[in-house]
Amino acid sequence: MKILAVDDDAFILELLFEALGATGYPNVTLAAGSVEALQTMHDSKTPFECFLLDIQMPDIDGIELCAHIRNEPAYRKTPIIMLTAMSERNYIDRAFAAGATDYVTKPFDVLELATRVKMAERLNAEMSKTQESVRTIDTLTERLVAERTIDLESPVDVENVDGFLNFRSFENYIAMLGRGSYFSSSLLALKIDNIRTIHKNCNATDFEFAITDFAEAISDNFAGNSRFFTYAGNGVYVCVYNRVKEPISENICLSIQDSVAQMSLVYADGNPLEIRLVSGAIKTPGVFSKHGSLSVLEDAIKSLENTYLAERVINASPKFELPAKKPKIWPKNARFGKYSL
Amino acid sequence: MSLDQDFKDRIASIKARFTEVLDERTQEFEQLRHRIEYGQDAENALYDLRAGVHKLRGAAPTLGFARIGELAGESEDCINSLFDPKKTSDAASQFFGNLESLLTEMRSAASSSPG
Question: What ipTM, to 2 d.p.?
């Protein structure tokens, strides 16, 4: 894997070079600052496959550099791991908002660094597979393109929506939060209740558009400095925020629902695409939960089932009427993304 | 995954060079402290010192100098508090006290350098 490591400390650069080389990543290019990094990227004949960026550097800091890299079409999805001596959430949040996929805190352990880079490598492998699929599809006929499918249960990556992180980055964000930030965070899961109907009635592209439209509605009502959300698959979105610094409005679900209604979404045949929203209970890490654990993410998703049973269904459209029948009880093996209920 | 002896030797070599450079950095920090104490372009000196201790905060503990990293972190926080308009009256004395502890630790580590 071709890696570009950027840090204004020569010792850290040397350490990175040695540590990555010793753990199976010898193809590392070093840059002593952001300007040098941008020049190196420009001059490189083959693209870099992973970036390691120090956050605090003179002139252009690592967060700004991260945003520059993301603006390059070739690097829109390349893993970017931030290196920081600071545990302040503000820096980490800004880095993720600028497009970072993960971060490592200095002082770093060599094996931990290798683990994070290995994760980036896996992400690259998945992306290559996807890109390969897209290239293959591009060469096929229009009919085959129309037959492209998206698995209902798989996370969908949404681009250019403020606060949205792909599912893997979101997991990294939760897992790597500092202890203080972890325990002051809350998670809220939302589900498009009629996702199966939407999935059944849309082709892959239209389904992606629907997921993106809904993400935009969440972003409009939820985006903030310390707020991120993801799409976990099966109609489930999960939001994380700092309940101490930036508590959310009690009416946020209704606001999102209103925003979606105002979009007047339609299917390809012109029929209205109605979205019904179910929200779970707000989940916070318990006092005995392990710092960095993803259990709170699972709890947030699982709570949707209980909320549904409590009949907290919200209408997407003012014209929509709730069915008179009893709420549906999810089967025990129902799955929300990768999580079983 | 285990790390081989060759890698450990190379890290030891980086650590040795870092120890040698510590003496140079100690002198730089002392000069910056002097400028701050006597008001000679003190604000820029504070910025430079903050950048210097920030680097130490990341590099020193990664190379095994945990105490230096800890004191550098405290110094960085102290400097940040000096820029805070709501700073307490004893922020300056805290800063100088902390910086002296850091310099002492750096001198001690530098004196253990074989070079």
Answer: 0.86
A93's tokens: 């949040």
pLDDT in tens, B34-55: 999 898 888 899 999 999 999 9
CA distances in angstroms from B112 to A305, B11, B20, B98, listed in the order given: 62, 17, 9, 22
CA–CA min distance A184, chain B (Å)? 22
Tell me the H-state helices in chain A. Answer: 10-22, 34-43, 62-71, 89-97, 110-139, 142-146, 167-175, 179-183, 195-201, 204-222, 252-262, 295-309
Q: Residues of A with CB below 8 A from B4's CB?
A: 22
Chain B positions touching A110 (Cβ under 8 A) are: 3
Chain B within 8 Å of A8 (Cβ-Cβ)? yes
Q: DSSP per residue over A269-291, as a string?
A: TS-B----EEE---B---TTSPT
Nearest CB partner across the interface for B18, out of A11, A56, A108: A11
Whether residue B104 is predicted with pLDDT greater than 70 in this model: the reply is yes
pLDDT tens profile A110-149: 888 888 899 888 888 887 777 666 666 666 655 555 566 7
B17: closest CA among A5, A15, A224, A27? A15
pTM of the model: 0.66
Beta-carbon count within 10 A of B9 CB: 9
Mean pLDDT of B61-72: 92
- Name the DSSP letter for residue A160: S
Look at the block and give the residue holding tokens 């009629």: A194
Residue B52 touches partner A, C-beta closer than 8 Å: no
